[in-house]
Amino acid sequence: MFGSGDTGRPRRKTDNVRRRKLLLSYAPDWVVTIALAAAFFALDKVTGFKREFSVTDTSLRHPYAVHERVPNLALYMIAIVAPIVLQWVANVFTIRSWWDAHNSTLGVILGLSLTGAITQFAKITVGRPRPDLISRCNPVEGTVDPTFGLSSAAICNQSSTYILEDGFRSFPSGHASLSFAGLGFLSFYLAGKMHLFDRRGHAAKAWIALTPLAGASLVAISRTMDYRHHWQDVLTGSILGLVTTYFAYRQYYPSLASEHSHRPYSPRIKRDEATLPMHRPTPSADVMYSGASGHGASQYHDGSEEEVELVDGTVRRGGPGPLEDVWKDGDERRKSPHDGAI
Is 195 a catalytic residue? Predict the structure, then answer.
């Protein structure tokens, strides 16, 4: 007992050192993510371009909704907090890996930050009027357009600078882009964990993976109900959020069609073979197990024996185990003749 305790301390110390190196290797990702998030909030304070409009344009004469169906606070809870929490819960019930928790959190925040920065930049440069612009503008009764031209923001009597500025930020929809970025990442994450594209056609898995996208669609549709956006703004924002978050997802996870879609990519730092313990080539207490991913029978263990190397297609139920386990999938992928491009 005393011997096992003594050997455990050096191993824990080695794991801690390598864990710090591992996290530092992803510092640039976090710096870029934080910078994009800062740009998102900073651009909101910039005075944007205001496109000319016609006071007779009926598409701009909808009422200004003081109370939105999905206010900003609710949007942040739906697009940021909910995906992160649900990904952690899914992690606990699948591979129980702190590395997967890190990658999923970084990925969703990167997707949101990139989407938000692009959305805000487009808003202040395009300057498209919202459907409720005339109500926001509050022009003098009887105001008409110039004989040979359109009206500008100069005719507005709105006392609130923020309300008037926001009236020219219709394209694209920020609620749509952010909701599809956050919930879209969650949808990809769940699809990967369940091996949605394993060619076995499980309808239940498809419904679970698509549920977050249904929630994002409801948020996007609510923007037309509040007359905050035209349908083109909502459609463009939704596509932008989904495409951008898939880009972020693929930075840390393989293709959804990969047999390893339930696991994140291997760490970036070099594996130090000299500091890793030896692994027995054949586990002593393996059983044949057909994994939840549907890849046939493969050797599986419950994680109680930490020096046993996991085999392709299995999901750790115990853990989290030692740090070196996160390298194993990368090593096995490089050795496997059936990898293909991911």
Answer: no
